[in-house]
Amino acid sequence: MHALVNLIRRATPSNILSRHTLLRSLSISSAQTATWAPERRTDLSRLTDGDLDAIRQCVCDDTASSAAAFITDAHELQAFNTDWMHRYIGTSPLCVRPQRTEQVAALLTYCQQRRLAVTPQGGNTGLVGGSVPVHDEIILSTSRMNRVLHWEPQTGTVTVEAGAVLQAVDAYCGQHGYRFPLDLGAKGSCQIGGNVATHASGSRFLRYGSLRGRVTGMEVVLADGTVLDLGLGRALRKDNTGYDLKQWFIGSEGTLGVVTKVSVACAPAPAAVHTALLGLRRDFNAVLALSRRAQHQLGEILYALEFMDREAVTLLERQQSGASVGNPLAHQPDCGFYVLLETGGGVAEHDRARLESFLGQAMDDGLVLDGVLAQDQSQSEALWRMREGLSEAVSRAGPMTFKYDLSLPPSTYYQVVEQTRQRLQTTGDAMQVVSWGHLGDGNVHLNVVAPTCDRRLQAALEPWVYAWVARHGGSVSAEHGIGQMKAGCVQYSQSAAAIEKMRALKRMLDPYGILNPYKLFDA
Amino acid sequence: MHALVNLIRRATPSNILSRHTLLRSLSISSAQTATWAPERRTDLSRLTDGDLDAIRQCVCDDTASSAAAFITDAHELQAFNTDWMHRYIGTSPLCVRPQRTEQVAALLTYCQQRRLAVTPQGGNTGLVGGSVPVHDEIILSTSRMNRVLHWEPQTGTVTVEAGAVLQAVDAYCGQHGYRFPLDLGAKGSCQIGGNVATHASGSRFLRYGSLRGRVTGMEVVLADGTVLDLGLGRALRKDNTGYDLKQWFIGSEGTLGVVTKVSVACAPAPAAVHTALLGLRRDFNAVLALSRRAQHQLGEILYALEFMDREAVTLLERQQSGASVGNPLAHQPDCGFYVLLETGGGVAEHDRARLESFLGQAMDDGLVLDGVLAQDQSQSEALWRMREGLSEAVSRAGPMTFKYDLSLPPSTYYQVVEQTRQRLQTTGDAMQVVSWGHLGDGNVHLNVVAPTCDRRLQAALEPWVYAWVARHGGSVSAEHGIGQMKAGCVQYSQSAAAIEKMRALKRMLDPYGILNPYKLFDA
User: Fold this and answer.
1) For residue A202, pLDDT beyond 50
2) Is the CB of A463 inside 8 Å of chain B's CB atoms?
3) Where is the FAD-binding PCMH-type domain (chains A, B) (predicted)?
4) Which of A237, A247, A408 sits opposite B442 (nearest CB)?
5) Sign (positive/negative) of CA torsion B47, B48, B51, B52?
6) With A267 labelled, which of A24, A141, A225, A423 sits at a CA distance of 20 to 30 A?
C-alpha cells in the first residue's frame, strides 16, 4: 500500500501548451492537409464585392467594430481557415465575428437569399475538421459572443453566449460552488456553443452524463434567419411541452442552425477530490475487472475513469524528455496499462478511506501493480496533464497522424488497438499505434503515428477501421463527431433508413444546404 | 434530535391500491369524461370488416393467439378505451396486442395505406389522456411485448421490449446490482416503451437525470411501417454519428412512431439507502433553503428530494382514516410543508452520519420542525407510499379533480398554489387545492379537488393556470406531457416558430397523421 500515498515526484507545473497556443506555434505542413476534398458545389454562390458590403452591414455596428467583426486579411484568416490538427485547411475569404443574435440572424437571412455557404466556428478545437470551411464558405465565428448572461442560484443553472470558453465558464460556476458538467482537454479554447453543437463529452461524462440531459435552454438561428428561443433563460430541468427541439441541434455540428445561447444545469462541486494513477499489467481483462469494481465499490463518488496504454505514455515520455512528463509510475516497467481514477465527494476522510480500501484490495488481488494518490491539487492537475497531453503529443509526434474516436462494447474495447497493430505490423519505433480513452463509457481513442508521409497507410487504415468497428457493434465516432474527416462514414454506424431521415431533417431546416456544407452525410 | 431516529409508528403494509387495481375498481362516472372533444377527422377511414380481417392477419400468428392479440369485445375494450383517471374515454372498436416488431410494422403499413388512425398504448397510466383514443382509433397495446432481451454486465445496460413493466425491469436490474434510472408511482403498471415515449421522469431524476441521456438504443416503427434500429443492442453510451434520432421519439407521445424496443444505461445500486420525512413550518422560503442545503451538503448521496404540502397530506389522512396513512409527523400540527428526502450511497454509517448531521443542523437552525428517519426498508417504503399515494388520493377525493403538472422557477414554485387558492377562494372543505412535487427539479403538481361537478370551475382554472405559468417563465407540462388534456396548450410554453417546426417534423414522419391524432398540437 505504501506506493499509493507516495508523493508524485515528477509532477510538472505546466509544460504542455494549450491547444490555442499550439495552433499558433505549429507550422502548416502540406503533408498534413486533407486527403478528402469534395468538389465545390456549383449551386452555392461566390462572394462578390456587393456581398461583402452587405454582410459588413449585417455584422458591424459601426466602422470602429469593423476590424474585429469583419476579417478579410489573408494572414489573419489563416487561423480561422485551419483546423487544430493542421490537417483541414479551407480557403474562405471572409470571417465574421458578430456580437449579437440579431447580427447572426441578419447574416444568415442574407446568405440564404444569396445561396452563400456559412461554416459556424467556435473555439476551432475539433478533431474532425468540422469547424473550418472546405472551400470558400464564410466563417461565422462565435468568439465575440462570450458573455455569461445569467446565474440561477437555486438550481445552479448558467446561461451563456455561445462563444464563452469552457474553462472560463467552469471557473465562473466554481465561484458559486458548482461544476460545469463538461471537461475536455481543449477547455482553455473550446466554446460552449461548439461543445453543444458537437455534443462534446469528455471525462466528466461518467459522473454528469450527456449534455442532452443537461442543456435546459437554447437559442438557435436557423438557415433562414429565424431565431428560435428554446426555453432559454427559463432553464427548466423538466419540460415536456411538445418535441424537444434543442435535441435537434445538440450534436448537429452546425449543419442545422447556429447555436447562439445556451443554458446548462450544473452540479454542486464536490468538496473533496482525490486523483489516483494506477499501473496494471498487460491484460485488458484486468482493466475491465478494475472498471467494474470501481463503478460498484466507489459508486456515487466515482467521477472519472480514464485509460491509457503503455505505448501512449511512452510516446509522451519520449517527446517530453521523460522527467518532465509527470508519470510517477515510470519506474514500473511491467505496467502495460494505466488507469486514471478520480473521486469527488463531500467528506474527504470518507472518500479517501474508501478509495484506499478499494485500491488496497485491487493491489492485494493482483489487479493493480502499483499506484499513486495525488496529495494535493497541483499533483492532481499533474496527473490530468499527463492524460490530457496525449492528444497533443501524438499530433506533434509524426508528419502524419490518424486519430480514431471509437465507442466499442467492453469486450472489443482494446481489441481494435491490437488488431490495428497487427494489421500495420508495426516494428519498433517505425510506426506507433497508441490509445487512451474514457474507460467508464466505452470510448477509446485509437491513434496511429506514421514515420513518413505515406498515403498507403491511410488506405490501409480506412475504411478498414470503420468496417471493423461496425462489425463489432461499435460507433465510428463516440464524441468527436463526423465533420470532414468521417463525412460519408456515418453509414458504418447508422442504417440507410436512419440516414435518410437525417437528410430529410436537414432539407427541412436548411433547404439550400448553406450551413456547414460537405460535412456529415453531405459528402 | 431524538425525533429523527423515532420508529415510524404507523407504517402501513400496503393499503394503497396499485393504479392497475384502481383502474378496475373505480366505476366510470360520466362527470369525469373529457370536456374537450375535437371533431372526428373526416380524412381518416372507418374500420370495415375487410380491415378487421386484414389486421388480424397482421397481428395474429394463428387462431390460438387471436383471443389475446385481437380484441373486439366491447366489455374487454372498455379498459383500453378508458384512461387511468376515467376522464378520457374513447370509442375504439379494436385493440391489437402484437408480440413482435414485424407485426407492428405490418399493422402500421396497412393502416397508413388505409388511412386508419392508431393510438399506441403502454401501461395506460398517463395523466393527460394521451394513451387512449379520442374517437375510434385502433388501440395498439404493447403489453404483450414485454421481454427482457439482453443484459450487458460490464456497462449495466438493459435492453427490453416496449411493454416490459417498469417495476419488473427495475427488479431485474436489481438482481444484477443495478438500479433502473427511473421510478414512478405508476411503476407497477407503466411500461418502459410508454415511459420513453412520454419522457417520464419521477423521483430518481434528481440523481440519474433525464432519460434523454440514458436511452442508449431504440427500435421504433414509423407510420409507414419502416423499422428504424437506432443503436439498439449496441447500447453505446456515446455515439456521435449524425443526428440522434432517438431523441425525436423520446417525449413524442406516440405521434411520430411506435417505440418497440429500448436499451437503457442503468446505474450501480447504492448499498445503503436512507429515507427521512421532515416537517417544516409554513414558509416556503424555508423549503427552498433546505433544498439548497441538501443539494450542497448531501451532494453525491442525495437521491430524492420530494415535497408535499399540509393540505395534500391532510386529504390523504382523511381519506384513509388517519392512522393507516403512515404520516409519522401527524402529531406536529405546525407543519405546513413536508419534505421526503432520500440518500443512496456505498457506506451506510457514513451516509447516516452525514444525513444526521445535515438534519441536526437544519433543526438547530429552525428550518426543520421535526422529522423521522426510516429504520429499515419497510419503513422507507411506508414513507414513499405516503408520497406516491397522493395522486390516487386526489383522484378518489371528489367527483371532479384537475391535475396540473408544472415546472416553475424556484421563486414561483409554490406561488402558483397560493394564487390558485386565492382565485378559487376556497373555504373549509368545500374545495381542496393541494400540491406536491419533485422539489429538486422544479416540478410541482397542483391539484384541485372540487366538491361538485361544476363546469364553471374548469373555466376558472383554464387557461388561467397555463397563462400564469407562462407569465412566470414556467412549463405547462413538466413530465406528464400534453396528450388530450393540454392539446392546444403547447403555445403557453413554446413559441409559434418552434411549434411550426414540430408540426413540420410530424408531417415529415407521419404525412397522413394516423399516429395518435388529436393529441399534442394536433388539436
Assistant:
1) yes
2) no
3) 88-269
4) A237
5) positive
6) A141
CA distance B402 to chain A (A): 18
State the Cα torsion A157-A158-A161-A162 to the nearest 10°. -70
pLDDT of residue B17: 30
Domain positions in chain B are 2-18+270-391, 19-141, 148-268, 398-486
> Which of A199, A244, A347 has its CB closest to that of B354?
A347
Q: Is residue A13 pLDDT above 90, yes or no? A: no
Residue A354: how many CA atoms within 13 Å on its side-chain side?
Answer: 31
- B344 touches A at CB < 8 Å: yes
| Binary contact (B214, A214; C-beta < 8 A) | no
> What span, in angstroms and rounded, lies between the C-alpha atoms of B144 and B142?
6
Reply yes or no on whether the pLDDT at A17 is more than 60: no
Burial environment of residue A142 by CB neighbours within 10 A (0 to 12, 13 to 18, 19 or more): buried
Cell of A315: 510516446
Percent of chain A with pLDDT over 70: 91
Yes or no: say if B84 and B124 are a contact pair by the CB < 8 Å rule.
yes
Quote the mean pLDDT of chain A. Answer: 90
Q: Would an 8 Å CB–CB cutoff place B252 in contact with chain A?
A: yes
Q: Verify whether the Cβ–Cβ distance B508 to A509 is below 8 Å.
A: no
CA distance A382 to A64: 43
- Answer whether B478 sits within 8 Å of A236, measured CB to CB: yes
Cell numbers found for residue B118: 392508431
Sign of CA dihedral B184, B185, B188, B190: negative
Q: For residue B331, which phi and psi values (nearest 5 degrees)?
A: -75, -5
A484-517 pLDDT, tens digit each: 999 989 999 999 999 999 999 999 999 999 999 9
**At a CB cut-off of 8 Å and minimum separation 6, what does A137 contact?**
A90, A92, A117, A118, A119, A516, A517
Tell me the fold of A2-18+270-391.
Alpha-Beta Plaits (3.30.70)
Question: What is the architecture, at CATH level 2, of domain B148-268?
Answer: 2-Layer Sandwich (3.30)
Give residues with Cβ within 8 angstroms of A264, minimum separation 6. A157, A158, A159, A160, A180, A181, A192, A211, A214, A215, A216
- Residues of B (391-430) whose Cβ lies below 8 Å from A: 407-411
- CA dist., res. A406 & res. A428, Å (int): 25
Helix (H) or strand (E) holding B195: helix B192-197
Q: Do A228 and B300 touch (CB under 8 A)?
A: no
pLDDT in tens, A441-471: 999 999 999 887 777 888 899 999 999 999 9
pLDDT computed for residue B426 by the predictor: 56
Determine the residue type at A29.
S
* Residue among A143, A166, A137 at smallest CA distance from A260: A143
CATH number of B398-486: 3.30.70.2740
pLDDT value at residue A21: 33
Q: Which of B153, B239, B499 sits opposite A242 (nearest CB)?
A: B499
Q: Which CATH class is domain B19-141?
A: alpha beta
For chain B, residues with pLDDT lower than 50 are 1-34, 427-429
CB-defined contacts A:B, below 8 A:
276
pLDDT tens across B426-469, in order? 544 468 999 999 998 999 999 999 887 777 888 899 999 999 99
The CATH T-level fold of domain A20-141 is 3.30.43
Q: What are phi and psi of A114, to 5 degrees?
A: -95, 0
For residues A117 and A510, the answer to whether their CB atoms sit within 8 Å is: no
Torsion (CA) A28, A29, A30, A33 in degrees, nearest 10: -70
pLDDT at position B488, please? 86
Residue B493: per-residue pLDDT: 95
Q: In the predicted model, is pLDDT for residue A16 greater than 70?
A: no
